[in-house]
Specification:
The chain is an alpha/beta fold. It is about 25% helix and about 20% strand. The strands form 4 sheets. Strands 1, 2, 3, 4, 5, 16, 17 and 18 form an 8-stranded mixed β-sheet that branches. A 5-stranded parallel β-sheet has the order 6-15-7-8-11, with helices on one face.
């Protein structure tokens, strides 16, 4: 890519996943031109957001609650195809249809306060001086690895959901899966079909949700995450407060003993894991399905974090800097939430642009 020094724009969008593409769509609808008034920067090598990195065994039919982007439905998808292929192709078609001109791969290293009320977005292709920023960087680039005593002594393999290859690589092995979320249970149920032994370890007893999950339940879950974000605390995922859906596959796994949960171990040994009561388990692999954190380190120069460790957000606007909007963060970290956040961020950004001379 060409380095161009510093280029002035009205809006920079960082990230071309669901939230970033939604924001870009609404910027166009508001009359701003891609490449002229705003730019979308994405560090991934191709369209698809974080979906392009999902494991092959996560087929589209296993994806829960994938909502179409605004203005273009995702229809006719083959449920048996990997979600990484289906959604990447959909995102690519979406970018082309609306002429979003996403620039990739572009790494954003830092966002700083600049002159004349602008923000300086420092990237691998030069610096953008922008009047407003829509940050849509999600969480995939910040896998969370807990630390336990003895972790460095383990002679087997440790890996995270972010690099989970699918079940085939676990054939005949003894596997400890750590994590009580949707990814952990999906990994466990797949691996149990080929592994010699599996063990499921979680910090808290899992909560399985029976019955429908409608709009009222969804709003209640989002409200719980919003409360954390408004208080300046690190956000939890919406999924973490909804519980695990009790579908037929999960029921079978529980009946077969695959989802018999063990409490969190105390330490890791060279050959496995150990609990405080003296129990030990030998393992060849520890799979950390322990989630992700918001990928916002590039915003550190703006000092947006509150004493509680999170960025306080009202609607999508960072309380400490009204020029910065976070979408796909906290309560909007779901496909439908990302769509709504993209629209809300653009409404706020256009008001800001109208109120402050260029």
């Amino acid at each position: 890519m060409n380095n161009f020094g510093t280029r002035e724009l009205d809006v920079v969008v960082i990230g071309a996943g669901q939230a970033g593409l939604s924001a870009a769509y609404h910027l166009r609808r508001a009359g701003l031109g891609p490449g002229r008034d705003f730019v979308v920067l994405d560090h991934a090598p191709r369209p698809g957001g974080a979906w392009q990195f999902r494991w092959p065994s996560l087929t589209y039919g296993k994806v829960h609650g994938m909502h179409s982007l605004p203005g273009m439905e995702l229809t006719g998808a083959d449920d048996s195809r990997p979600s990484s292929e289906v959604i990447a192709a959909y995102f690519e078609a979406y970018e082309l249809r609306f002429g979003l001109r996403v620039r990739r791969p572009v790494e954003v290293s830092a966002v700083r306060a600049g002159a004349d009320g602008r923000l300086l977005v420092e990237t691998s292709e030069g610096t953008y001086a922008t009047r407003a920023l829509i940050n849509a960087t999600g969480t995939w680039d910040r896998p969370f690895w807990p630390h336990y005593p003895g972790q460095e002594t383990f002679r087997g393999q440790q890996l995270h959901t972010a690099t989970y290859p699918g079940p085939e690589g676990f054939t005949g092995l003894r596997v400890v899966v750590v994590g009580g979320g949707a990814s952990g249970t999906q990994h466990l149920m797949e691996i149990a079909e080929v592994a010699a032994e599996t063990y499921w370890v979680t910090r808290r007893p899992p909560v399985f949700r029976e019955g429908p999950f409608g709009e009222d339940e969804g709003r209640a879950a989002v409200a719980m995450v919003e409360e954390l974000v408004r208080g300046g605390l690190p956000p939890q995922s919406v999924v973490s407060v909804t519980g695990l859906p009790l579908n037929d596959a999960v029921r079978r796994a529980r009946e077969q003993g695959i989802l018999d949960r063990l409490p969190m171990f105390e330490r890791i040994t060279p050959d496995g894991v150990a609990w405080a009561d003296g129990r030990t388990v030998e393992a060849d692999v520890i799979l950390w399905a322990t989630g992700f954190r918001a990928a916002v380190d590039h915003l550190a120069p703006l000092k947006l974090r509150e004493p509680g460790g999170g960025i306080r957000v009202e609607d999508t606007r960072a309380v400490r800097d009204a020029r910065v909007h976070l979408v796909g963060y906290g309560p909007s970290a779901s496909t439908i939430g990302a769509n709504r956040a993209g629209r809300a961020a653009v409404r706020s950004v256009t008001r800001l642009l109208d109120s402050v001379p260029a």
